[in-house]
Structure formats: structure tokens, C-alpha cells
Amino acid sequence: MIVSKTDYVRSEARRNTTFDHHCHWPGCDKSVPPAMWGCKRHWFKLPLRLRNKIWATYRPGQEITKDPSAEYLAVAREVQDWIGENDRG
After folding, report:
1. Cα–Cα distances in Å, from 62 out to 5, 36, 71, 86?
2. Count of alpha carbons within 13 angstroms of residue 11, beta-carbon side
3. How far apart are the C-alpha atoms of 26 and 1, rounded to whole Å?
4. What residues does each domain of the chain span?
5. One-letter-per-residue 3-state SS of the chain
6. What's the pLDDT at 87?
């Protein structure tokens, strides 16, 4: 059965109630489901163009297999660079 990325992430968020994963925003220690990039607050601090790039390069299950694509890793670096240049607290 093929499910959408959205359905997969929502399902993982409901299924996983204890998380050994945290928001990828520097300094944020909020726990989030492994299938999610970050907490709601920080996800929506990112510009839509970056959120779209994360979403486009995310492959369902990469958080389990620990093998994100080179494209996803490049976007992750781009996001961290953006945060470093734009985070005002």
C-alpha cells in the first residue's frame, strides 16, 4: 500500500510517542517524531521555500534507515546556513 508523505509522517507521529530525536533548530531541545524536521515553532520560522525543499527531498523511512539522500543533506546544510544568517532569537 502506497501512502503519501503527509500520511506517513502523521502516522509516525501518532505511532511514536517517545522520541529520541529533537528539533534541528540549533539550541532547541524539544523532542519531535523522527520523521519530522523540527518542532512546530521552528518549522514555521523557516521560509516556505526552505520548508518546501526539505519536504521535496525527504524520503519516508530515511529516519529509520539513517540514509538520507545527498539532496536532503544539501538542503539540511542550506537550512542551517539560513538559520545562522537570519536567526534573531
Report:
1. 12, 11, 13, 28
2. 8
3. 36
4. 5-86
5. CCCCHHHHHHHHHHHCCCCCCECCCCCCCCECCCCCCCCHHHHCCCCHHHHHHHHHHCCCCHHHHCCCCHHHHHHHHHHHHHHHHHCCC
6. 84
19 CB-near residues (< 8 Å, 6+ apart): 31, 32, 33, 34
pLDDT one digit per residue (tens) for the chain, 89 residues: 567 877 877 777 677 655 678 999 999 999 888 888 999 999 999 999 999 999 999 998 898 899 999 999 999 999 999 999 998 76
